[in-house]
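Dear U.,

For the methods section draft, I wanted the exact inputs and outputs in one place so we can describe them consistently. I've listed the two proteins in the order they'll appear in the manuscript figures. Please don't edit the token lines directly; just add comments below if something needs changing.

First protein:
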Amino acid sequence: MSSVTVPVTAPISVGDEDAEYKIVEIRATGDVVLDVTFENSNACNKSIPTDAIQKIRASRAKIPSVKACYRVRLETLKKHSKYFTHLLSSDVFGEGRAIKDTLDSLAQSNLKPSEVEPIRLPRIKIVDEDDATRTIGREVVFRDILRIIHGAEHVTKPVNMIYLSILVVMADRYDCSGPVTRYVNGTFGSFKYPQTLDNNAEEILRQKILIFYRTNQAARLAAATKELILRGSSRWVSYAENSAFSSAWWDLPDGLEGTSYYI
């Protein structure tokens, strides 16, 4: 696959904060800006890229949270994501009303949202917590999700298990699993999932199960869940609270670990 350049505009001031953030142009003609804070904590134990968390811990620095801004198309978000449909509908939440007011103001000034500087566009604040994945670097996965639902290619390299796991977790959270599932099964259809025969590979096996389940890969899901049954799980024999079991793949959704499911 050829390399893809991600357009980035000049930095803009965000609100009253003493900082500037670059706008990632998911669509150069976008009419809203998503201002997303990716909250990270010391509970994070993984990262994209894979060595980032080790470098932070080696420096003894606090794991930083990250703010990123994305210029996107409002109607595209609402078309592909029920999360954004509910959040950005003008008659439901304040975010929707703020968008309507800003766009109405631009219209009264005979300005097209697709042509103005991003600082003049409606800005929607979102907080993405780290509880589900315990991984820093989620902003690049979120960027790829926005690109996918806007009909573009992902740009994060390399694609690995932690990337795919976070991709499906975030797609579920933002209720845009449909286009992401189609993209995974198409673009990543030949992805080589690692073997999980080693006794220490349960986490990867669980990530595979979650990916296959979220992307409707029935045959692979059946094989992976059978492997987990035959292997057994360290979680099944541990009754105490364990922070190692806090990520989404350690708490598989919709009763996947229930006996009735396997029977």
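Second protein (the one for the lower panel):
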Amino acid sequence: MRVLLLTPMPPSPRGLSATPVLLHAQLRALRARHDVTLVTVAGPHPQDIEAAQALRESGLDLHAVPRSEATRADRAARWISHTARWALGRLPMRTIWFHRPEVQDTIDRLAAERTFDVVHVEDNAMGVYRLPRGVPSLFAEHEVRTPRDVRWTEWLREPDGPYRGLLDEIDWHRWDRYQRTLWRRFDLVQALTERDARTMRRLAPELASRVRVNPFAVEIPPPTDPVLEEDDTIVFTGGFLHAPNVDAARWLVGEIMPRLRAMHPGVRLRVAGSDPRGALRGLGSGDVEIVGWVPTLATELARAAVVVAPLRVGGGQRMKVFEALAAGKAVVTTSRGAEGLLVADGEPAPLSLAESADAFAAATAALLRDRTQRRALGARARELMIARHGPDAYGERIDDVYAALVGGVARADA
């Protein structure tokens, strides 16, 4: 099929966040089966520009709208423009950040020049654009924001200051209306997990028949070298602009690690990932290292005896969990952290699940003490990821979704 794909950033196996990495695995699956035209935004980070160039050199039909900020004046102008649009409008900041009029111009031009069988839009940041008329459309929601009450005082404790906390609180409450408006525009809406799909059906019951569940793809890396594994080291990775990761890190350091030290003396924790606002400031100690941003997580995964992901809030799939499983590592996480994992009824999940601090520490300590058990668990995890979450497996699932679209899925409100 001829697919027009929209993404908020160039897919890349070495992206600055989880999104370009998962998009790269999906793009690989799509290109193996379909004729893909990609429209995206590239910049201002050099990594985005390099990723776009690599895709272009690979032969992909790429239309990357540049976003450059060469000087401080450029950055200041962008900040003023975005803040004004946010203050005077009703859109969440993420959609404003990724919006470029040139993207709409590109979509309109391509629609006038060519015929597409499917329009596939990834991530809610790209939901603001007008799509070609008459072409079946699929929207992939990466994380559903669940409405909640206003947190009247919590924003005062924001590490980046109460002003930032207040803006974040206001922004959060814009998502409910935006999400529901966005989902209604598409013929099918794809969630990554059953939890997100249930939330979508609850928030917009009239769209229930359009919702599909399709977990994202993961590129399968080489297995990690056992020689590099450090017996007493546990690793947690994530981007710490994302509130669920901050919550997990604080719970891990404040409640789980004290229990784990008592159960397994000598344990060491490494927390790796970008933290531009300093949300983890003050969490480091003698056996807790806040590593910060690293150019590749492969090195961190290789040295980990156990990868931990104590996630308690948030939606979507957890790239950090799936990447660790694909690398053949033993993982301890919560049921929320394992959502989206395709395990058959009655089949044991290839990871260790724990919901309380006591249970999490106990599960981690057990794996730290038993090298044979954790390596067997990691090997089973890798097998499952290859079979059900690799690009080939995702490609088969997305083919079924595309077939439903071009077969004439009826819109409930058409």
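Candidate sentences for the figure legend, describing the second protein: Confidence is low (pLDDT under 50) at residues 410-414. The longest helix spans residues 243-263.

Thanks,
Y.
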